[in-house]
Amino acid sequence: MARRDPPPEHGGTPPGGPQPGQKLAGIGVSPGVAIGHAYILERGEVHFPKRHVTPAELDAELVRLERALELSAVQLEEIADGLSGPLAEDNALMLRAHVLMVRDPTLVEAARRAIREEKINAEWAVRRACTGVKAAFDGMADEYFRERQHDIDFVEKRVLRNLMGHQTDVPETLPADAVVVAHELSPADMMTLARMKLLGFATEVGGPTSHTAIVARALNIPAVVAVPHVSEAVGTGDLLIVDGSRGEILVQPSRMVLARYRGIRKQFELAREELATLRDAPAVTLDGVTVRLTANIELHDEVEQALVSGAEGVGLYRTEYLFLHHRRPPTVAEHAESYSQVARELAGRRAVIRTYDLGGDKILPGSATGADRNALGLRAIRLAFREPALMLDQMDGILRATAEGPLSIMLPMVGSVEELRQARGMLELVKQRLRREGVAFDADIPLGLMIELPSAVWMADLLARECAFFSIGTNDLIQYTLGVDRQDGEVAHLYAPLHPAILRSIHHTVTAAHDAGIKVSMCGEMATEPAYVGVLLGLGLDELSMPAMAIPRIKHTIRHWRRADAVRVAAECLQCATTAEVSAVLTAAQPEVDMHPLAPKASMRGASQA
Amino acid sequence: MAELTRDLVIQNELGLHARAAALLVGLVARHKPDFWLRKEDMEINGKSIMGVLMLAAAKGTTLTARVVGPEEQGLKDMLDQVEELVNNKFGEGR
Predict the structure, then answer these.
(1) Which of B6, B17, B38, B39 is labelled catalytic?
(2) I need a labelling partner for A224 at 20 to 30 A (CA). Which of A11, A115, A545, A583 fits?
């Protein structure tokens, strides 16, 4: 996921300032193009003079310390007080913990003592005190507690900046066309920035699920994270292009590059506007057949974006993040709270919750069986049978959350009827438990399956009799059907969604499902590609689920097709001998669809893991 | 000076993590008496969030709270409130 190109040649601090035209690569976490002037927030190491103070200066130094501590606490409290929105309570508590650290008697006393006894200046004393505390955390066995060092770090830097008279918080107003550049942005920074007008973000640390990324996406502001040395390579006021779609920062671009990106930005904005008008239009073919379009999400705060993009619900809620985020299995209450939040935000629309798909490339920390696993190993439903407590707790949480809105359960990696029955047995067990406890829940919660193993395709008719819906996970289905590991560069070219075997597998699955009277969705990357829309329509899929950003362009494409043509095209494709023949049939049948060349690409995140 | 001690068992699933520690420290900071927490042979100032976090107290850990102050009733009230917070699992429900 965290693909990162090697840093450019002038990756370090370039002699003589930024190199005009320099391109820095990072991870695009919020798409779009921003062109503006860099606004550097100093968030790296705080440099300060270390000096010994004379006895006459001691008192003044102690006063400086008190003032800086008080100021830091007040700043953090102000930010916490100003919070609103869905994450406000959690975020405020995080900031209150930081306030308590600033006022921590152990820390404050250590700093005071260092000034008095070692006769050093306040900055040095704060550094000493914090280093001492961090060292105590460093040796801790529990990762969660060890990581609290970062909180102390944020607090230490804030106090040091206040001592030095440096800017600590984002100023009340930013220049009109600011692109915020920083080493990293603390939760406090992002909470403040979220209320301001700015054009883009570039940071040196972070990933797709970092606070910066989540906030940037929520605000629809282009952002690139994990850009090596960006805060050193760029100066305040430098002209910058943030390409959040490609994950690139262009420093002091030439006039030609600038003109090109202005064009791209214009197109992106036009496309976004135009596609936004599609939001409330139905995903209906020219001859009146509707396809349900839903969103793939990983965090509950992606629901808002999904609805803005026109999603009719959530077709795939990946729950692995819950496990990875907590670095331990979530509790029933945490499960229930996450799913309840999604249900509430969807306001009556359905969410399909996929039980955890851990193992394989995603390893459950703290699990006894958390060893390295591969795609054919102990993962997903297999792990659930090995460690039933994890699955039972998750099912319990999901059932409790059905009080807040319609939810479905989807099982990953099922390859046999026995597995389906075993999982259903677990679900019934949890239902009985809840009934005994008198907890209200949806007793008819639909239980469906991911179709991603060839064995599931071949058993589809019998599986369909015992479950409520199918959702085809194309990434794994293609990998397992064609026997191709897409991560292996030597064979990656053999990974072909249009391979006739894949189309036949989809056809077989859909036919079996429809014969049994259940619906079929597709939630893999294949559903995000406009060029495949025709054949998928023709094969009879009832629903397509994809990252929110892809919904408008898929809807746009659907509205250019006739179902009758699509059925004919699909039938023709099913007779093709080679992938190339399939491609040719599709290309010839493709209706004229006016797509802006940079309509949001959906491949940024999520789709690759379905 | 009076002194009282009381054993507390951490019952919430997450243990004495940052949120819980912030609630505990926030509570005891509102009271005048000194407040100490001991886990095995490590005793820390319970008004220090870093100290509390350093205990790394997981679910099931027994901590001994010790309060020192001028009048006994105040100490007992303080311990009662701390005990209630701990037994309520810091409002986490689990």
Answers:
(1) B17
(2) A545
